[in-house]
Structure formats: structure tokens, C-alpha cells
């Protein structure tokens, strides 16, 4: 039985010193890793590590990189198109209320969304502060996984009702808001992630994929289910969403 870390950044330079050990620790715990390229350099490295470590991959372009010119964005676009067989989904893509120029963010998001439609892939979105907007734009086009969802419960329920996934990150370990989301959402529409090396549940330590265990344990506590049961449902949700066995 497997854990699923449906969104992390193995290609992040923060892992340059210990990437081999991080992967090994995750594999020892039977964690299925999906790494997510989020910049041109990040996508190129993620592709390389996908092959090296035999992990899973999504490729996209992070909304915080809104200042980039079209030349860079087109390079990422073509990279995704040329590697369609290597990826499970397009992402992470999206919009972030803490970044500038919402119009340009939306334009870039829509460009990658139409690529996902063309390739018949689901999308993994970063939608901080724009959960409802992203959902409205994409819901009739592709399946959506809301990475590290932090929006309100009502929107989350709508997202689930249409068969999309809410991804619960390691923030669950210390956030009352996220605990409340888990409590009130159907587990059939949840998936788990670490977003490592970010969002560490352990003070002073870098996050890593094996910590997805802590998310699963916390979901088990909240839902009064045992860990194996939670693992089984999350794995099933992941395979259904990515349209393949991981
Ligand atoms: Zn991320």
C-alpha cells in the first residue's frame, strides 16, 4: 500500500545537497512522488529527475513568474507539448493574489489551460485567493487538482461536487482551517501532498515527501479512519485523477 505525495518540488535547488537521501527515505516508506516543474529551469530539471529516480511528473509555470516575457513562457509551453508522454498533468499553473498584474496572470493561466485541454490532461493549480475564479474558468474544460487548497469551505464543496480534487498539504499538521476543511469534505475528493521543500510541518527542518505520512495520519484522526484505510482511498483518488496506476 502506498502513500501519495501528489505535489512537491524534488527539482528545487534546496535538495541539491541531499536529493538522493530524500528520495530514498520516501521510497522506503512507499511514497509515490509527483514532482512539479514550475519554471523553465525547474521543468528541465524535473524532467531529468523524473527519469533518474523513476518518479512522476507534472510540468507548468508558477503564477509568481508573471513578469517573464513571452519567449520564456513559450519555451515552457513547447517543453510541455514535446514531453506530453512524460507528464501526468499540466501544473502547477494558476493565479496568486499576493503577486502582481492579475490580468497577465490570467492570460498565462489560460494559455496553459488550453494546452492541457489539447493534450487531454488534468491540471494542478496554485490558486491562492483566486480559488473561485480559477474554478470558474477551468471547471467545464479539464479536471482540476487544487494544490495546497486554502480557500473557503463553500467553494471547496463546489469543487468536490464537480469531481475535482482538493489537495491537503502538510499545513494540515498545524492549521485549524485545514482541519476544518478535511472534517467537512468527502474523502473521495481529497489528495495529499507536501509541497516540499516548502511548508515543513517540523520547525527548523526542510520539508520532504516522506512527511506526507503526517498528513495521512492527521486525516485519519479527523475522519476516525485507520491509516491504511486513508492510504487506500487517497491512492485510489490519485489514480483516478491522473488516469493511470501510479
Ligand atoms: Zn508547489
From TrEMBL:
Record-level Gene Ontology MF annotations: DNA nuclease activity; hydrolase activity, acting on ester bonds; metal ion binding
Annotated binding of a divalent metal cation 2, by residue: 126, 147
Residues the entry annotates as binding a divalent metal cation 1: 7, 9, 92, 195
UniProt KW keywords: Hydrolase, Metal-binding
NCBIfam families: YchF/TatD family DNA exonuclease (TIGR00010)
Designated name of the protein: Deoxyribonuclease YcfH
Species this protein is from: Methanocaldococcus lauensis
Amino acid at each position: 500500500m502506498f502513500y501519495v505525495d501528489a505535489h512537491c518540488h524534488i527539482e528545487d535547488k534546496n535538495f541539491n545537497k541531499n536529493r538522493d537521501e530524500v528520495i530514498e527515505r520516501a521510497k522506503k516508506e512507499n511514497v509515490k512522488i509527483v514532482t512539479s516543474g514550475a519554471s523553465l529551469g525547474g521543468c528541465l530539471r524535473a524532467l531529468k529527475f523524473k527519469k533518474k529516480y523513476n518518479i512522476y511528473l507534472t510540468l507548468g509555470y508558477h503564477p509568481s513568474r508573471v513578469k517573464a516575457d513571452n519567449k520564456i513562457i513559450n519555451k515552457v509551453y513547447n517543453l510541455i507539448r514535446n514531453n506530453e508522454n512524460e507528464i501526468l498533468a499540466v501544473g502547477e499553473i494558476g493565479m496568486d493574489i499576493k503577486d502582481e498584474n492579475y490580468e497577465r496572470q490570467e492570460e498565462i493561466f489560460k494559455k496553459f489551460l488550453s494546452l492541457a485541454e489539447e493534450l487531454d490532461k488534468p491540471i494542478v493549480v496554485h490558486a491562492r485567493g483566486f480559488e473561485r475564479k480559477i474554478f470558474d474558468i477551468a471547471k467545464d474544460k479539464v479536471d482540476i487538482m487544487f494544490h495546497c487548497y486554502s480557500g473557503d469551505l463553500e467553494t471547496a464543496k463546489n469543487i468536490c461536487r464537480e469531481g475535482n480534487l482538493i489537495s491537503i498539504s502538510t499545513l494540515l499538521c498545524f492549521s485549524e482551517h485545514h482541519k476544518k476543511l478535511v472534517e467537512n469534505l468527502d474523502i473521495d475528493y481529497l489528495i495529499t501532498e507536501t509541497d516540499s521543500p516548502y511548508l515543513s510541518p517540523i520547525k527548523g527542518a526542510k520539508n520532504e515527501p516522506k512527511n506526507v505520512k503526517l498528513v495521512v495520519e492527521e486525516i485519519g484522526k479527523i475522519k476516525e479512519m485507520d491509516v491504511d484505510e486513508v492510504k487506500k482511498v487517497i491512492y485510489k483518488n490519485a489514480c483516478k485523477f491522473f488516469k493511470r496506476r501510479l
